[in-house]
UniProtKB/TrEMBL annotation:
Pfam families: DUF3895. InterPro entries: DUF3895. It comes from Niallia taxi. It comes from the Bacteria. This is DUF3895 domain-containing protein.
Amino acid sequence: MSQISFDELFQEEKKQENTISDIPSPLQNDILELIRKGETSALSICEHLIKLGKYSNERFSTNKPKAYGKVCLVLDKMTRNGLLVFVEDIDKKDRIYKLNS
């Protein structure tokens, strides 16, 4: 039985990421539409997606949606793909993004 190193693991993840199409998913299109309408806050985008039924309304004891981390992952992927620009992290409570012009 052979072992895999951390480097090999990350190389495999990169290969998988590079094979995924750059065509925005329906969720990414919903996010882009919200950003075009002026939403820049990851938390606000998350709340809108919950209202649209894209995510559950489950919350942490802090009242932050449990889907917030997933939404930030999608936003970060869109940033890596050049669709968005990360603007700032507000005290680890929210993140701000904008369209890449």
